[in-house]
Structure to design on (811 residues):
């Protein structure tokens, strides 16, 4: 539904801006999807009156010379004789200095020796309506004051695109929106509703046409009137401009009036060429297979459930949707039959959906029209058609059907207060409903009875009226009541949030979550857990469900084996769940990880795939927490570490330590023979971590620094050290040296000589890159060399390492 702001101001006394109107409509429950401008503000274009038409230009007979008054002075203007202006006409005059649409500058000029002091403009030159011809004359209404700016006669407009809810068919008209504005602002309507005829006229035998409803279930009320002496032509500029501003194309003077009334009052109308209608008009159900040709020439085959308006020959319109092709109003039409009816919404909707045919009329009928406005809309259309098309009415209107009785609803004031949750004064309820156009029939302290106007078809029950009270007094008037308080965040909430973060991080690295059984078989944990720590069921449902699982990894490995047996080459699984062991904590949350296969899939571009190794597993574990973890291989098994197959045999087992020194888990790689049982070519990598300990490290505040502004200097070291000395010792010495410009240490090469020719057998060479950078300036090479020497001295003094010539830095 497109709403013209200027048109709305003609119907209601509203003093606010377009923005104020948007806010008001939002309070009423109407969403404004967009606001667009319409028209162009024209400066120095005024209403002028032609006082005298002089003889044509002596050297150009197609130019007429007019003497016009612009309200301040007399002007001489040359104009094309095709426009056909006469003395006394009031026309738009573009004064010198005006800029017309298309960036046309008007100036005083001479044409063959005669001066023209402006331009008499047409509708096309002012771009007031779409498709108007440049030479089409534009004669202003007689009541227009000479000297008035044309921007006041045809003011620029703002068009609001409204999103209308299906239950409020009355909002599909400018009058319906005007009623809402009046209800919420307390202002008065400028539209005189009482002046329109709303009573049903008595039947008359003098009618030139008869109308009859054959199916009252599909049509409640139907009216038809004959208007004779019609001269169909183009509509006046004001009418065309009004329609086109809200997206309705101008057709001709008669059709435009029916659309104008529909947009104004919400009542669809239709005009038939009376000369093409044969006999009486019937509103009936279509015959099965009956043909109908719409205004666009499209043929439809109807069913017995479709409503049609027909004469003795057949359908002349698809009821409430569209007229027939042979009955349209054209320039040859001299007599029309004007239809105004109230069709059943369900019938119109059913036919529209089945045929795929819709129109502005069907859109309104589907949502329900005001049955009390059927006659008044027809009367208004008759008056305007007689004005713009010169028609006359000699026969009275013909009607059939019965208008529905007005709905009456009783509201109990105490129930309204209970439902809305606020104490409401009965007088306040009454005032609000009267603002909403309901008519008070009876009032007492306990209850009141109301008559619902015909345009409010959505108000049928007491609860509907109570909802209307809430809408009219404003939701903000209902005070907030708290029936519950938010509980503070608990440790359980923090654990759930942390588990969600873990799931996202693992999924980002290609892991899938697995769910294994809490009750497991003894054979799955054979020789893994001491008997005194196992928790068994006294009455297990079966041998395979006799033990509460003490760890997650064994069951995960079974899931890995199942995936590999189905052809998967790479499997990455994890599980977050509870494990059970006798001791300090018999129940704890644990994170199990299992991964086998390749780090990256092979590529046609020559990229080689690589088997997953222990470093991949360490990287996955480190990504789960913010604190820096340590991986230590120790023969002494700490107490209460997670149970995994890593502790059996000669598997590569590393204990995961937090910065505090607490053991939070186990990680490592299974023996080749254990991996072969799974059916994978590489070693199976597994880890199990205590979730509570891992969560503590995640509470560490992460420090974020800005992107460096100054370049870095990289110095490479080739460090010779015994094989038993871990790289972590070198890293700790370099970081603890306190070198201010050292920002990172990157290992890039490890060399071991198994022959003993280049290096002793018990030694190895590790190449590291030392990255130096200052946050305040660009470092010199000399500063980096001096810092490198200091770091070398620290390594020699604390670890007794050696150095060899630096290898080339890899690209």
């Amino acid at each position: 539904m497109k709403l013209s702001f200027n048109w709305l101001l003609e119907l209601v006394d509203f003093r606010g801006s377009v923005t104020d109107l948007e806010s008001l409509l939002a309070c009423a429950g109407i969403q404004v999807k967009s606001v667009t401008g319409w028209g162009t503000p024209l400066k120095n274009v005024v209403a002028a009156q032609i006082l005298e038409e002089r003889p044509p230009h002596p050297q150009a007979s197609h130019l007429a010379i007019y003497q016009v008054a612009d309200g301040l002075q007399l002007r001489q203007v040359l104009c094309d004789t095709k426009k056909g202006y006469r003395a006394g006409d009031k026309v738009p005059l573009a004064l010198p200095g005006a800029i017309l649409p298309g960036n046309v500058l008007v100036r005083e000029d001479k044409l063959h020796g005669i001066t023209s002091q402006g331009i008499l403009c047409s509708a096309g030159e002012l771009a007031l309506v779409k498709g108007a011809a440049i030479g089409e004359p534009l004669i202003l209404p007689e009541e227009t004051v000479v000297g008035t700016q044309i921007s006041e006669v045809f003011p620029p407009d703002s068009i609001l695109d409204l999103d209308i809810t299906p239950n409020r068919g009355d909002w599909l008209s400018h009058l319906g929106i005007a009623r809402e504005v009046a209800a919420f602002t307390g202002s008065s309507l400028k539209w005189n509703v009482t002046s329109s005829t709303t009573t049903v006229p008595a039947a008359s035998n003098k009618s030139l046409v008869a109308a009859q409803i054959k199916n009252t279930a599909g049509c409640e009320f139907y009216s038809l009137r004959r208007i004779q002496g019609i001269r169909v032509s183009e509509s006046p500029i004001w009418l065309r401009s009004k329609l086109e501003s809200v997206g309705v194309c101008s057709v001709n003077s008669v059709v435009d009036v029916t659309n104008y009334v529909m947009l104004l009052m919400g009542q669809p109308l239709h005009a038939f060429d009376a000369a093409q209608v044969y006999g009486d008009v019937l509103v009936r159900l279509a015959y099965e297979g009956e043909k109908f040709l719409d205004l666009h020439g499209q043929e439809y085959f109807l069913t017995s459930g479709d409503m049609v308006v027909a004469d003795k020959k057949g359908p002349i319109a698809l009821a409430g949707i569209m007229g027939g092709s042979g009955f349209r109003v054209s320039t040859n039409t001299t007599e029309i039959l004007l239809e105004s009816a109230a069709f059943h919404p369900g019938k119109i909707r059913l036919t529209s959906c089945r045929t795929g045919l819709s129109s502005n009329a069907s859109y309104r009928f589907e949502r329900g029209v005001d049955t009390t406005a059927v006659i008044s809309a027809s009367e208004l259309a008759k008056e305007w058609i007689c004005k713009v098309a010169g028609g006359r009415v000699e026969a009275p209107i013909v009607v059939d059907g019965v208008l529905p009785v007005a709905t009456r609803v009783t509201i109990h004031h105490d129930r309204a207060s209970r439902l809305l949750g606020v104490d409401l004064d009965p007088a306040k309820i009454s005032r609000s409903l009267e603002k909403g156009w309901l008519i008070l029939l009876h009032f007492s302290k306990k209850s009141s009875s109301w008559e619902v106007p015909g345009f409010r078809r959505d108000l049928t029950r007491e609860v509907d009226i109570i909802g209307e009270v809430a809408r009219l007094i404003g939701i903000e008037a209902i005070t907030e009541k708290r029936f519950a308080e938010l509980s503070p965040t608990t440790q359980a909430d923090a654990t759930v949030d942390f588990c969600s973060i873990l799931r996202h991080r693992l999924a980002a690295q290609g892991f899938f979550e697995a769910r294994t059984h809490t009750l497991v078989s003894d054979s799955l944990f054979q020789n893994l857990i001491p008997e005194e720590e196992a928790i068994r069921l006294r009455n297990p449902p079966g041998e395979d469900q006799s033990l509460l699982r003490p760890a997650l990894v064994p069951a995960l490995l079974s899931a890995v084996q199942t995936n590999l047996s189905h052809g998967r080459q790479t499997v990455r699984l994890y599980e977050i769940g509870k494990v059970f062991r006798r001791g300090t904590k018999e129940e704890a949350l644990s994170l199990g990880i299992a991964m086998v296969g390749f780090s990256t899939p092979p590529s046609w571009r020559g990229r080689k795939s690589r088997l997953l190794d222990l470093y991949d597993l360490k990287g996955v574990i480190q990504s789960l927490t913010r604190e820096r973890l340590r991986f230590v291989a120790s023969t002494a098994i700490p107490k209460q570490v997670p149970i995994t197959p890593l502790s059996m045999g000669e598997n590569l087992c590393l204990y995961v330590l937090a910065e505090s020194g607490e053991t939070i888990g186990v990680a490592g790689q299974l023996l080749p023979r254990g991996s072969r049982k799974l059916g994978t070519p590489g070693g199976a990598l597994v880890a199990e971590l205590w979730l509570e300990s891992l969560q503590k490290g995640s509470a560490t505040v992460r420090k974020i620094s800005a992107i460096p502004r100054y370049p870095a200097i990289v110095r490479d070291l080739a460090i010779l050290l015994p094989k038993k000395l871990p790289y972590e010792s070198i890293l700790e010495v370099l970081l603890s040296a306190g070198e201010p410009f050292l920002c990172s240490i990157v290992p890039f090469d490890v060399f071991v000589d198994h022959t003993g020719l280049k290096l002793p057998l018990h030694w190895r060479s590790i190449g590291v890159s030392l990255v130096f950078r200052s946050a305040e300036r660009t470092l010199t090479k000399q500063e980096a060399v001096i810092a490198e020497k200091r770091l070398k001295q620290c390594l020699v003094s604390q670890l007794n390492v050696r150095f060899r010539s630096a290898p080339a830095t890899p690209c």
